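Q: What does the assembled structure look like for these inputs?
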Amino acid sequence: MFILSEDSQRTQGRDAQSSNIMAGKAVAEAVRTTLGPRGMDKMLVDSTGTVVITNDGATILNEMDIEHPAAQMIVEVAESQEQEVGDGTTTAAVIAGNLLGEAEDLIEQDVHATTIVEGYHEAARIALEAIDEQVGEADVDDEILKQVGESSMTGKGTGGLTAESLAETVVEAVRHVETDDGVARENISVHTQIGASSNATELISGIVIDEEPAHDAMPTSVEDASIAVLDVELGVRTGDIDAEYAIDSIDQLNTAIDAEEQEVRGYAEQVVESGVDVVFTTDSVDDRVSTILANEGILLFDNVSSSDARDVVSATGARRVGALEDLEASEFGAADRIRTATYGDDDLAFIEGGAAAETVTLFVRGGTEHVVDELERAIIDALDVVSTALASGEVVPGAGATEIAIADKIRSEAAGIEGRKQLAVTAFADAIDIIPRTLATNTGKDPIDSLVDLRAAHESEGRAGLITDGENVTIADPFEHGVIDPADVKREAIESAAEAATMIARIDDVIAAEE
Ligand code: ADP
Ligand code: MG
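A:
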């Protein structure tokens, strides 16, 4: 009996399992070489020829046109890692791929998928305990936060800037939006602008928007500004004149023009009389209105995008005004300073010291689009990890040290686990080894020798990572070398990798409808 359409494709049993596992492994393999401070970059070219150069796992997987459904699940691991904690995407994808590789071996040894799933869950639980044990005792202060930010950026193209000075700016930004309830990460934005070296990257205490003044003669900087945000057109509504005047003499034409002039002047006067210093309107403004306002020293932005208008509102506390009659001081927002600047073809407005929100903007500069884009990704990762570390106050050693500790704890607890499940638990530890192994491979070290040395150092010292410091690669305590990751990044990586791998391993039937 056929219950499926003839066109649908079906793969069952081992075939389904191994095809899914292979696809998942292949995806993880694709990002492996980018891991760590000596990770290489990938250049991705899409069908329209757009080029992205990046070292960021989530970006690579996103840009790759991945169709296989199981492979897609690994991409989702990286995506959820990015969303939840903002870093560790390569780590999570690589672990997930290796868990699948180990699962494949277990299946070949006739370990049932449900046993693998149970074993992996057990091992993931032990791994989380191991992470708790690795959490550093010291308070997460600015110095540690800086190191966390720096660790997340090493290996990323940070242009001419050292990761250290960038990390300092990142910590400053995060500290700025820290409140009693945690870190208001949403109050930090990143604005990229090409045309200068990345050394010009700076922290603006406020927002930056792509808007230009309506008139060249308007002030380029206004201090202690009162600000209005309008959804009002400041001009003669098209059609008004034709409807009201049937023009058949010069006199009548002049009267019409006078009436129009008067109407326009009326709008400008209403704005001037309100006492406002800076106006943003989402609608258009007649040139004559702009000229009058420019003469009065008022800074006006017209045709402002609605998202920029929203940002101005939330930064300055202005209330949106829908009709000119309602333009009053009670609706105004305020800011310490509003200034405009031109960068090449781009006009920007900087709104600093807004009265309503403690927003800050990292104004990222770089010579080319590719440089600023990769710099932006690195900075966003750093902002996320520093926020995560500050919010939870928990950091763990990086450079593979936490993974060495996890694998060690899993192996020692595996001895007490009965039956074939023990094999699956041990396999999980083997999969975790991929992180220190890959860090070794990517720095040109032998992965087996490094693993042996790291385990020995972990045994005697308790903390041992493969530290890359300039040209040198040494085994040492990552805390002493400032290679520090947020505990939540490691937790999330283990959890999401284990979840995806077990989900994929459990599938033994793939039914695909015809496209
Ligand atoms: P992910 O996408 O997983 O964050 P990365 O390429 O950012 O991948 O690499 C992160 C790994 O690199 C972490 O394990 C981190 O501890 C490690 N790492 C960062 N800086 C160093 C360093 N100086 N030496 C050794 N390992 C480092
Ligand atoms: Mg990273």
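Residues 34-37, 39, 57, 87-91, 151-152, 154-155, 398-399, 439, 466-468, 483, 485 surround adenosine-5'-diphosphate (ligand 1) (CB under 6 Å).
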